[in-house]
Amino acid sequence: MTSLSRIGAAGFALWALLHLVGGGMILAATLSGGAEAGYALYGPTDTGLPRIAGDILAYFAYLLMVIALVVAGIAATLNRANSEIGLAINTGVVLVTEIGLILFLLVPGHVPVLQALPGFVLFGIGAIAGGMACRGDAGHA
What we know:
Number of helices: 4
Oligomer: single chain
């Protein structure tokens, strides 16, 4: 375990924590107050939404939390151990997740770039530091 592998693991773990908290907030708001409360986290809602809209939002939040738990588990085990496979899995999972954020929330303007920036920065720290650690350690797993 090198300093860079620890930094990379921390970047992925913090990305996971950020998304676990965000998903939990969306899920809690949706389950306690319905679709309008869940969507209100993104901005005011003026129209009544069908029940399925809240259920879909809750499912989205649940999936985001599952992804975050997977990323955190890999960060705590494989990324800390400087594993190329762990780096590839977490980089791929987080990259695909962030691409979805860009396509479906940033491009249409539903979420401001500054609000998404912490996740991008933590992903960059995890991927870059983890990659440098794997590249610099000839005996990595």
